[in-house]
Write a structure and sequence with these properties.
By secondary structure, the protein is of the alpha+beta class. It has 14 helices and 36 strands. A seven-stranded parallel β-sheet has the order 27-26-25-22-19-18-28. Strands 3, 4, 6, 7, 8 and 9 form a six-stranded antiparallel β-sheet that branches. Helix 2 links the parallel strand 18 and strand 19. The longest helix has 19 residues.
Amino acid sequence: MHRSSRLAPVLALLAGCSTGCSSGATPAEETGSETGPGGDPSSFPGTSAPTTTAGPDTTAATDTGVATDSGETGVDTGADTGDSTTGDDPLLRCPTEFHFDPPPGGTAPKIAGEWQAFNLATATVMRGPDDDGIYHATALLPPGLQAYKVVYDLGGEPQWVLDPGQGRRKYLGGLENSAVLVPDCRDPALVVESKSVQRPAPGQGSYAAVARYVDGLAGAGPEPAAYTAVLRDSSGKERALSAAELKIDDTTGDVTIAVAGLPDGKHRITVTAAAGDGRSAAPLRLIFWVEAEPFQWDDALIYMVMTDRFVDGDPGNNPGATAMADPRGDWQGGDLQGLRAAIADGTLDKLGVRAIWLTPFQTGPDEAFLASDGKHLVTGYHGYWPIRAREVDARIGGAEALQAMVREAHKHGIRVLQDYVVNHVHEQHEYFTEHPEWFRTGCVCGTNNCDWTGHALDCLFSPYLPDINHTVPEANAAFVADAVYWLDEFDLDGLRVDAVKHVEEVATRNLAAAVRETFEPGGSKYFLMGETAMGWSDCADPCNDENYGTIARYIGPFGLDGQFDFVLYHGVSYRSFAYQEKGMLHADYWTQHGLEKWPVGAIMTPYIGSHDTARFVSLADYRGQDAGHDPGIPGNQWDNIAKAPGDVEPQLRMRVAMAWLLGLPGAPLLYYGDEYGQWGGADPNNRVMWRDAKALGPDEATTLALVRKLGTARQQVAALRRGAYVPLWADEDTLVFGRKIAAGDAAVVAIHRGPAAKMVDVEVSASLGLAAQKQLKDRLGGPAVQVSGLGKAAFSVPAHGAVILAP
């Protein structure tokens, strides 16, 4: 055992860092808001400040405290609040740093928090400004999630604002505050200094990392003999690191890891440090992938699976018919074993799938409940009515089946996303029984005096689905902890967060902070994608700013990585491709327009169909061409529902739409069955059982063959995944665009919806850097094209077809 001098300064950094380590934000005495570009309400102002620096916030709030100076030291000793989050020592205080960049004219910033009852008279005075205009302060705070606000002077009036440099939030008394998660400073910690993955050849992967030891408050020094380090490989096997793989500095306690000979797949090294006084650090998870090409999330083609409607791999777990339930809204036998088999036999590989989005797999109720029409009874086969916090539904295979499916997916380089419900539970949920104060009841969305917009945060989707109240800190903490449990226990790779605009922003912000701090220190990115349902209006800016802004406000360094592109879906997907009421010029314009609206770095998910929409093929079939094909029919759920198409036209339209979708930037969604053009109207008709290739008709088989080529091209050509969108040429029936990473590292996507082939001649040298005489291969099997001496590519796009050209 050796003592270490690295103590208080690093402890303060751990407590006060706003991203990538413990940090926070939430409400209490006053409210504040942040303003993004163009004046839109936003939690993410658009430019990222240094990770421990709060950017400017210009929104004022009413001050209920007394504005007096509390001293010049910039250090607050705190006061005992009796908060249950402070641990087993109510007198323990840990150094916590704060940093703030006031807006123009803002002076004398202070930190007021729940530890001193938000009393402005005793608020911590911040030191500064430094040479960069930043103010700093250190306060001694009890461990746990501590609410606070920044208070600065503007024109003689105190301004109480949220800290834009912190991720977390916390409500107190119904009001929102910033929050900092203060660790127990008695415990040692490990902080990752560096990490790297190498993979020169299959089976020769290596991982190296250095983690710095930070001593606990007692300064007891490290106890190297008590350290542990365990490697878990992609098959789930575990072993302790050898002495050659794990080096611990006896003096500093720092850790150096070097592991070689790793197979392709996902790996985890869990390291725990120990101090001489017997206290241990929280486990440090170093999670990483060994693969031929390092993955990033815009590489993903995301395949959505509604587990119960995919493949029945084990009839023994089928529950049988549910009393009084309409068979269309009842369990049908799909399970995780069936999905695993489809992964193992290469079904998803042939589509170029790199990620699976699974509908929720928590245990749901046994009984049937009223559907939205108030007449039909349906079950929770879809997973969105959880009754258990941490239990996999046995009807889809249970926990062992989930673990086996995830391992199989990882063997194929496929990530797995859990659909995580943060808006509601079923009334039979254990939390609702044990903690009814965590939920709202009574106001049902869309009923009298309870509209969807005005009560977006507190209305119930159905009377039997209590609404989670994230303004209750204990409720929010429970659902964040459950998300961490699922990701950790089953080695998942991210979350699709359901119904984002129907929960307070504290839900996504605190979730994001916990996920990133827990799972990303080793180098792997865990993907957080959201669902914020919005629409589209056929008018010029700023007409759609609310649609774009509402979706964008949840994306950023303290929130989600991306969201479903609802604006593009409603503006283009079915209008230009299913109904064809809008042309390709329209599609090109709104694609570019949307890309300009999303935050920098956002990974959006374009789509042409999902479990919440009528199937694209049925929209393309019921396009108003005759009295029997009213466009409203696909929206019918139970009666006068959409039937199978009577001709090939809907499939032709689907193929063009697929070529467009899989050529777009982002992480596009492929809803199960859309790969062969499954038909069906609104829920439950868009959720029929998946069919394999042997069960398809000729037109469906042709569509499947094309989608496989499109998915393979996207996987093989990096520019189709990572390149910028470059418009090249368009008319009403034809669209040609490029995807460009760098000069010459580019691809050309051409789609045509007309009944006859279309000859195009587009410039590709100046725009894409494709050199004269360069040979371009059509990744869909058409003839090769040579760039002319004038830098142009001339080629024919087939009727109802597509061409994808790349070197």
